[in-house]
Specification:
Helices cover about 20% and strands about 30% of the residues. The chain contains twelve helices and 39 strands. The structure holds (2R,3S,4R,5S)-2-(hydroxymethyl)piperidine-3,4,5-triol. (2R,3S,4R,5S)-2-(hydroxymethyl)piperidine-3,4,5-triol binds near residues 337, 368, 479, 527 and 529. (2R,3S,4R,5S)-2-(hydroxymethyl)piperidine-3,4,5-triol binds next to loops.
């Protein structure tokens, strides 16, 4: 049993062996009061003793009752304007222009398993025993509207998911102006907020800041979850580290405009909310219509940030990603983008593919530039038919030749975009998102198609289907290279323009669903100019994401370290690219480039035909190594150890479930002469198992490796460093330690 209802006093307790979440119906107004979220506590028939009230100067709901201020009662899904003055979790405007709501408890329902969300991505269960779901229904009898708060608790994971549904049962249309997925009033503010911040080519940088009094938030209003913020935030205790202490994670399964906000009020209560960004959102809810919010996945960890991340990793890898590729090893790919950019033809492509095949690479991906007359980024998006001069044998011809080499073939699309010089634009100029009488802004010379319209989505499906259907395609990279400006849909009524951003994302999800339904064995990799849509929503459709357009190994340490806060290695697109690196011009050793890229999906993004024989031999070795270790890397437990945001060194590792194998990546950005002594303390090993480190003839107990660490200096037995070349200290050096249990 994971959900209990104390029927007589209407208290709800969701719990498993690790976590408890408790709320109750307030007898005063039949709304919901939040009581507790955190480490598991014992169930009791009454939690009345957890109620906390002070008589404070305030506005009160009831005349003469000085304890009925909602501002001083922790709310479960707060409204604004009836004595709570903080930011609310929902706001509805009715036909007289009022925004006051009064949702009162009507009933609840507990069911085994987990329900799916209509038209939206969400985590799932494979058997009903994995989770239990509580739906609490509240009703506003002026609005004649139901609000259903849905909670799922997984029995074996520290995970509670939440979403909210509104059902208009009245006869008037309403406007939903805010509909958060979740809201939690935590009783204190002794936290740091951790989130991922960035820009194009600099995604996923970890930011940590002490909670300030008042409001702090992360958000997107760009039409995609964005390079700037990721739909994730964590609240971590001051003394929590990567490995110890209390952390609460909030991750939104959504790819569009979102808001993650923490409001610390004047009494130290921290209200954490996640959901669709209410800014630029206004949804007309007609009689009998339902509005469904996305899902927020809340993770509680008392094992620090790694504990939180490991829970997200396992959940997202096995219960968010779905379909044919979920449990399969992913092919090692080579992508021609940084090898050729737009300058290629069939012969060049085949040359790269042939050489790559000889090196053991399994999948060739043809990136941007194969369609219309696309020679640079100013044309042809939407003309999804082959550029004859580059590909005289069409996609059928090329894909068959690649197939004949014994390689899989993948193709790039940017389905949501259109260039002005295309047949698509000529036929449907009104299909772009733009506001009447206003200039339509450019982004990378292109316009955004109005995916809030079904006919647009269907048409693009038709165009893609033609190319995919006739060719041997086993992988698609779905790119999206600009944000939405002048948001407005020619197909929506004036009072529905606030729906464009959300409807757009529903259109994106719809096209994905159509494609994966028709082509279930195609592996999708989502991409948005790198990581502008690295979010859980995308992972429901595309099992992996191109993490960043920055392929420099040193930059990638930060990007991948940050991305791993939430996302498993099996989703993190990571490639070895050429030097000097195309984004920063840095010369890093090919070993280091691979040592970083191994901790992700692994592939190459360079012209292998121009490599020296020595480099080719290295690539062959790397490919062979990854093939041996990829099962461990995708399914193992990942630990971050040394943090690239705090030091010159980074380390992380993956340990197999049974603790018999591990791989450690250690990276030193700048070399220093006459260095201090250095050790890397490992994590997650069995303390009593004896491990051998590949290439070294001593053995080490897990407890030695975790408490003393791998010693990086040399010792008397071998005189010089075993692990590090002191004769040739180099910048951007790295080392892999491959561990195996010895019996
Ligand atoms: C942006 C992507 O992130 C790159 O990998 C590449 O596909 C280009 N777009 C192509 O235009």
């Amino acid at each position: 049993m994971t959900i209990r209802v104390n029927e007589s006093n209407l208290e709800f307790h969701l719990f498993n062996n690790e976590v408890s979440y408790i709320f109750r119906v307030l007898e005063k107004n039949n709304q919901l009061e939040h009581l507790y979220y955190g480490k598991k506590i014992t169930h009791r028939d009454s939690f009345y003793h957890l109620i906390e009230r002070e008589i404070r100067p305030s506005s009160n709901m009831f005349e003469g009752d000085h304890t009925s201020s909602l501002e001083h009662i922790r709310q479960e899904y707060p409204s604004y304007g009836t004595t709570d003055f903080r930011y609310p979790a929902h706001m509805i405007t009715n036909n007289i222009g009022s925004h006051i709501t009064n949702f009162q408890y009507q009933g609840c329902n507990i069911s085994k398993g987990k329900t799916t969300l209509q038209s939206l991505p969400a985590t799932y269960v494979e058997s009903e025993d994995e989770a239990e779901t509580l739906e609490v229904t509240l009703f506003d009898d002026v609005l004649k509207t139901k609000m259903i708060l849905s909670y799922t608790i997984y029995s074996e994971r520290n995970v509670i998911t939440r979403n909210t549904r509104f059902v208009n049962e009245g006869e008037e249309s309403l406007f939903l102006e805010n509909a958060m997925s979740s809201s939690v009033d935590l009783p204190d503010d002794q936290f740091e907020m951790v989130h991922l911040f960035g820009a194009w080519a600099r995604e996923g940088h970890v930011e940590t800041q002490k909670l300030a009094k008042g409001v702090q938030s992360i958000y997107s209003a760009r039409g995609a979850s964005s390079h700037v913020h990721n739909p994730f935030l964590a609240l971590k205790r001051f003394d929590a580290s990567e490995h110890t202490g209390e952390v609460y994670g909030f991750s939104l399964v959504y790819s569009g405009n979102f808001l993650g906000q923490v409001e610390v009020d004047t009494y130290g209560v921290s209200r954490v909310m996640m959901g669709i960004n209410p800014f630029q959102f206004k949804w007309k809810l007609n009689p009998n219509e339902v509005f469904q919010t996305p899902e927020c996945v809340m993770v509680y960890s008392d094992h620090g940030l790694n504990g939180m991340s490991q829970t997200y990793h396992e959940l997202y890898r096995t219960r968010l990603v779905r379909g044919y590729w979920r449990d399969k090893v992913r092919p090692i790919l080579i992508n021609n983008w940084e090898a050729t950019y737009f300058d290629f033809n069939e012969e060049k492509v085949l040359d790269i593919a042939r050489t790559a095949k000889d090196l053991g690479i399994e999948l060739f991906v043809l990136d941007d530039g194969w369609f219309g007359k696309r020679d640079d980024d100013s044309s042809s998006l939407g003309d999804w038919f082959e550029y004859d001069e580059k590909l005289p044998n069409g996609m059928e011809g090329l894909s068959e030749k690649i197939d004949a080499l014994g390689m899989k073939f993948g193709l790039w699309f940017e389905p949501e975009m259109v260039s002005k010089d295309t047949k698509l634009y000529a036929e449907h100029p009104d299909w772009i998102i733009s506001t009447p009488y206003r200039r339509a802004s450019h982004g990378r010379n292109q316009f955004v198609l109005d995916f809030s319209r079904q006919e647009v989505v269907d048409h693009i499906f038709g165009l893609m289907d033609k190319v995919i259907g006739k060719s041997k395609i086993s992988y698609i990279k779905w790119d999206m290279n600009r944000y939405i400006t002048e948001a407005y849909s020619a197909a929506l009524e004036t009072d529905q323009q606030g729906e464009v951003f959300h409807r757009y994302i529903l259109g994106v999800y719809d096209l994905y669903e159509k494609l994966i339904t028709k082509y279930p064995e195609i592996l999708f990799e989502s991409c948005a100019g790198g990581g502008a849509r690295f979010d859980p929503g995308m992972l429901y459709y595309a099992p992996q994401t191109w993490t960043s357009d920055d392929t420099d190994a040193v930059e990638r340490l930060k990007i991948q370290y940050g991305t791993s806060m939430v996302y498993p290695l099996s989703t993190i697109g990571s490639h070895v690219s050429a030097v000097p690196n195309h984004q920063v011009g840095r010369m890093t050793p090919i070993d280091t480039r691979a040592n970083v890229a191994y901790f992700g999906t692994f592939g190459y993004e360079l012209d292998v035909t121009t490599l020296t024989d020595e480099e080719k031999a290295k690539v062959s070795e790397q490919v062979a190594f990854f093939k041996k270790k990829r099962n461990l890397i995708r399914n193992g437990i990942f630990y971050r150890m040394q943090n690239p945001f705090e030091s010159n060194e980074t380390s992380w590792m993956v340990v197999s479930d049974d603790q018999t194998e591990a791989i450690v990546g250690y990276y030193k950005v700048l070399a220093h002469p006459n260095e201090k002594y250095n050790r890397v303390k490992l994590q997650g090993l069995d303390p009593n198992k004896l491990y051998a480190i590949e290439g070294k003839d001593t053995t080490h107990y897990g407890n030695e490796l975790m408490n003393i660490g791998v010693i990086l200096a040399g010792n008397y037995t071998d005189r010089a460093s075993e692990y590090w070349s002191r004769e040739h200290p180099n910048d951007y050096d790295s080392k892999l330690f491959v561990l195996k249990e010895v019996k």
